[in-house]
What does this fold into?
Amino acid sequence: MEHKFYAFCIAGTNSGVGKTTITLGLLRALKKRGLKVAPFKCGPDYIDTAFHKAACGSPSRNLDTWMTPRGVLSYIFKKGCANSDCAVIEGVMGMFDGAKAGKLKGSTADVAMKLDVPVLLAVNARGMAGSIAPIVKGYTEFNKKIKIIGVIANNVSSGRHAQILKDSLKVSNLPPLIGWIPRDETLKLPERHLGLVPAFENIKTQKWFDRLARICEENVDIDRILKVTGVRPAPRSSQSEVGCQACPAKPWRRRGVSRQSSVARRQLKNHPITKSSNLPIRIAIAHDDAFNFYYEDNFDVLRDTGHELVFFSPLKDKRLPDGVSALYIGGGFPEVFAKKLSANKTMLKSVADFADAGGNILAECGGFMYLSRSIFCGRKKYNMARVIPYSIRMEEKLHSLGYREIKLLHDSFLGRKGMILRGHEFHWSSAKALSRNIEPAFMARGTRDKNWSPAGIRTKSVIASYMHLYFPSNQQAFR
It folds into this structure.
């Protein structure tokens, strides 16, 4: 007999209401119940997803209706759910906050509607009693296409307070209070200038997850959540069963290429690093404490287009992995580990030599900083790889934030000239150009911009910028 598959989204009335805390507690609690959970995050955030994986052991994927075509969004969700028992989607900001004012695209609501998943609404109940009713009523009636099945209140002072909230919703004939989280400052996640601290940096993380799970088991009616959200058959790993009608089986899969074929292996072996090519290649990916801001779906795109991924540590390894033809350095906290990165001179030289030899390099945000000549943290200067003529300085205020759309100016390993990709930018550092002869990597614009502006740098076969590109945003990328 086919078992039910449970799926629900945790949305919030606004940012800071406790969506992540509630999500992590439920992820851990469901795992402890023996369920294999598939976690997801609405929007472009890549830090929450790291916490999701730490809480339940499964990789978390992003669901973003601004960055992703609809069919591809469905594919990502179905693929992430395959062979799992339950999908838990954490929302972004307030439920109806989209990429543009008055528009739902990019919002939690848009994801919930497009994937047809029910919603649990998280509300900050601090200093609130009966007023919870009109708030929930507004969210319930604003868009009737969204199925709000219950409310989880955060910052609740006591069981009596929770009962008042519950009664207020009941007498108003609104979705029920399905759970509550007590007011406790020790439950809050610590924050850094980019948001949440990466999970592996907190040695007490696992005990903290267990504590959240116990609180959820005590105060959240998980049985009821499963009862009202177990409405769909379990997705299968078979692509023909995983996808929806509008969703291609593998939207970015390279045609005619099998990673296991002898032809592909010969191509990999003979691939010259001095040229951009669409042949399957071996890609080195920087992944450690300093560099860990990646979209899981980007890795899927690279694998599905035939490439082999090899992970390495710019902090600990002495040189790049053998036999690689491309290098991908994502974002992270290079400024936090600047001293150690600067001290690993053999790795810096290995990266610089790779670039000089014409090796393809994609560097995003933290990777852009790593390829620069130096990073200034206060009065301290740390030398970096010196691949691109920039000096980086950490600022005290957020320097840039928001969705970005880019248009390629040249044929490259990313794609053809004129191709448009989407992504996100979020950084506290500024970059000073140390040369007048900088060729931009692409043109870019934000959601409020009509005109394109040059961004990033392209030198030899290096593309570096502050952009975090989302590869599934264009199905022709890396072909």
Notes: The chain has a mean pLDDT of 88. Residues 205-219 form the longest helix (15 residues). The chain has two domains: 4-242, 262-473.
